């Protein structure tokens, strides 16, 4: 399983801001910043939300690429 930092890094590389990720994960931007910096792994619920955001975004993108 990917770390919180990896999930956030991949989302940011694909155009997400820390603020947008925080909004979707229902946490503060400061929490996302700490997680991306590797200072904190975050709570289990936050990790689950990050994984869901990542899966939804990249899963949708993969489906679009297959359909093209």
What's this entry about, in short?
The protein is mostly helical.
Task: Explain what you see.
75% of the residues lie in helices and 0% in strands. The model has no long low-confidence stretch (mean pLDDT 90). α1 (4-13) packs across α3 (29-37) and α2 packs across α3. With 68 residues, the protein is mainly alpha-helical. The protein has one domain: 434 Repressor (Amino-terminal Domain), CATH 1.10.260. It is globular. InterPro entries: Cro/C1-type_HTH, Lambda_DNA-bd_dom_sf.
Provide tags for this entry.
68 residues; mainly alpha; 4 helices; globular; single chain; 75% helix; 434 Repressor (Amino-terminal Domain)
Ranges where pLDDT stays below 50 over 5 or more residues in a row are: none
Average pLDDT reading: 90
Q: What count of structural domains?
A: 1
Give, in order, the helices and strands. Answer: HHHH
CATH topology: 434 Repressor (Amino-terminal Domain)
CATH architecture: Orthogonal Bundle
Query: Termini distance?
Result: 28 Å
Which percent range fits the helix content? over 70%
Helical stretch tally: 4
What would the principal axes of the Cα set say about the shape?
Answer: globular
């Amino acid at each position: 399983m990917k770390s919180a930092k990896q999930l956030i890094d991949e989302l940011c590389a694909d155009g997400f801001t820390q603020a947008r990720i925080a909004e979707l994960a229902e946490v503060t931007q400061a929490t996302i910043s700490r997680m991306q910096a590797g200072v904190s792994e975050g709570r289990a619920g936050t990790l689950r939300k990050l994984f869901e955001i990542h899966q939804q975004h990249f899963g949708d993108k993969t489906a679009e690429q297959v359909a093209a």
